[in-house]
Amino acid sequence: MTKLVYLHEPGVLCNLALRYRLNEIYTYTGRILIAVNPFAKLPHMYDMHMMEQYRGVQFGELSPHVFAIADASYRAMVSENCSQSILVSGESGAGKTETTKLIMRYLTFVGGRAIGDIRSVEQQVLESNPLLEAFGNARTVRNDNSSRFGKFVEIQFNKSGRISGAAVRTYLLERSRVVQISESERNYHCFYQLCASGKDADKYKLAHPQNFYYLNQSHMYELEGVNDAEEYLKTRRAMDIVGICFSDQEAIFRIVAAILHLGNIEFSPGKEFDSSVIKDEKCKFHLQMAADLLMVDVNLLLSTMCYRTIKTPEGNIIKAVDSSAAVIGRDTLAKTVYARLFDWLVDNINKSIGQDMESRSQIGVLDIYGFECFKYNSFEQLCINFANEKLQQHFNKHVFKMEQEEYKTEEINWSYIDFVDNQDILDLIEKV
Ligand SMILES: Nc1ncnc2c1ncn2[C@@H]1O[C@H](COP(=O)(O)OP(=O)(O)OP(=O)(O)O)[C@@H](O)[C@H]1O
Hints:
The chain is an alpha+beta fold. Among the domains are: 40-176 and 364-431, Kinesin (3-Layer(aba) Sandwich), CATH 3.40.850.10; 178-244, Orthogonal Bundle (Arc Repressor Mutant, subunit A). The chain has 15 helices and 13 strands. The strands form 5 sheets. The protein has a 5-stranded mixed sheet with strand order 7-6-12-3-13, with helices on both faces. Helix 3 packs across helix 4 and helix 6 (189-195) packs across helix 9. The chain is elongated. The site of adenosine-5'-triphosphate (ATP) has 19 residues, from helix 4 and strand 5. Adenosine-5'-triphosphate (ATP) is lined by residues 37-42, 90, 92-98, 143, 145-147, 369.
């Protein structure tokens, strides 16, 4: 890209389109790799032979490839003894998650664990994917399996450059999706999986998703080529693999079911001004189910939604709230419980993969949503766009400065993947 005479948007797009037509999905802009989603399986691009070809080769010598980025990152870590990060950014459906998996595959290839290890870290991280996807992925208008959270996978290495552990950190789970979905989209996969699970669904008094408010705001219930009942079994298997015991698995799905029942609780105005009561018998049933599944007192659960506590220096004042505030309380509870469940799952996955607290250095792969702009944008879009802006500023500062010196290019904003000092990324994430 840097060899273009005029580096402007039409030139960049034309170059990408021409290369794409020649089946060249990767293009460099200096040290940054642009990947165009092929939406087709290209096994020859990622096989063992290809990995062998890129191993240890000077960056830029071979055709642009995601393996070249991973290799340069690995070599920089070994030779400079400094942790690295690879940032994978782009809009929804661009191919970030697939790219992350390819990077991990390559890193395991060059830095595979010592002989004797039964399961590689890549295997372990990949095996935990169905679980993360069941609880953190959903159908959007752009992608049937869109990750609704950011992910930072840290691959840890010992002093001989061998993988010694890994950890997955997640950011910005889209909590609002639990209680609100747009037309043609779905809530998180786990809800539909549980509804389709047969005996387990009966146990928790669940039925078709159209019966639950948190699922029926959009009329999209099924995904093409996906059987939710089978996916449920896969999620259960993934839980077995990461060592979540049967009773914890039961607790997880009790919480998922409780959230669906919570969503069906409606309120009517109470007798007193600005107060609310539960609407009818049907809602009472869902309230009782939610309380039973969460193992909490039913009256206490109701009062957490219909009342609020104001803390004053003189003590707490308990005040009734109107029915619309009670709905907000209900939704907040559902979102918080779900987000905590997700964090708990991530913790368990990390325990199962095993971290090396004494690792010499690490390569972090950040897979994070790109800029978003919808008809209605919420606080989440602000956070996502802010995070992207900060990351881009960082790259513009560190990477483009270097390139400008080298190639005299102008600053452009683009989706990129690249490697930088790992500590910078960690500091940045903390700030964001
Ligand atoms: N390198 C690739 N080769 C073949 N297919 C790909 C590749 N990258 C992406 N795809 C296809 O594109 C789809 C979407 O990719 P992916 O889920 O990685 O996007 P994403 O950027 O992570 O999206 P989101 O932000 O919504 O999670 C994949 O399911 C896959 O079919």
